[in-house]
Amino acid sequence: MDLTALFQLSYGVYVVGTAADGRRNGCMANSLMQVTNQPPGLAVGLNKDSLTCELLGQAGRFSVSVLGERADPALIGTFGFCSGRDCDKFAEVNWEERDGLPILPQCCAYALCDVRQALDLGTHWLFYGEVTDCDHLTAGTPMTYAYYHRVIKGAPLPKG
């Protein structure tokens, strides 16, 4: 089986953020999609072992920052290859708080979501969130997972 065939699926690259008990964290995600229009809703899958997943479960809210093709590779490294259990991922990046959640203003767009349901998938949680706010941030083309592998030549994103 050649799992690289899954790189052909058309989906983006995102930083999912959350905050709970005075802590904030975020991780790279490629398993995010809009699933409803009315009300607008997004679903994201996160590894159960990640600090972001743990905090999101406590907070019941998350943010999504849509990375563009010109995103700084260091941003991908910070949110994709560092654990929030070992470092403050937001310490070295430009970020803003919107309604208590962290977003990255250098990204193409953002969305804020309140979790309405969570589904246990064994190794991951799938969180369905109703969008409470969203907007464009910068011009640019959103990064797809295929672009990430073809141009940035990244390894699979680890749990964060």
Could you explain the architecture of this structure?
- The chain is an alpha+beta fold and 160 residues long.
- It has helices at 51-59, 73-81, 145-152; strands spanning 14-20, 23-29, 32-37, 40-47, 61-66, 96-98, 101-103, 109-120, 124-136.
- The strands form 2 sheets. It has a 7-stranded antiparallel beta sheet with strand order 2-1-5-8-9-4-3. Strands 6-7 form a two-stranded antiparallel sheet.
- A hairpin with a 3-residue loop joins strand 8 (109-120) and strand 9.
- The protein is globular.
Write down the overall geometry.
Answer: globular
Question: Stretches where pLDDT falls below 50 for ≥5 residues?
Answer: none
Largest sheet: 7 strands, antiparallel
Question: Could you estimate the helical fraction of the residues in percent?
Answer: 10-25%
Strand order of the largest sheet: 2-1-5-8-9-4-3
- What structural class do helix, strand and pairing data support? alpha+beta
Distance between the termini: 26 Å
Number of helices: 3
> Could you tell me the number of beta strands?
9
Name the helix and strand elements from N-terminus to C-terminus, one letter apiece. EEEEHEHEEEEH
Task: Give the averaged pLDDT, no decimals.
Answer: 91
> What is the radius of gyration computed over CA atoms, rounded to a whole number of angstroms?
14 Å
Q: Strand content of the residues, in percent? A: 35-45%
Short description:
The chain has helices at residues 51-59, 73-81, 145-152; strands spanning 14-20, 23-29, 32-37, 40-47, 61-66, 96-98, 101-103, 109-120, 124-136. It has 160 residues and is of the alpha+beta class.
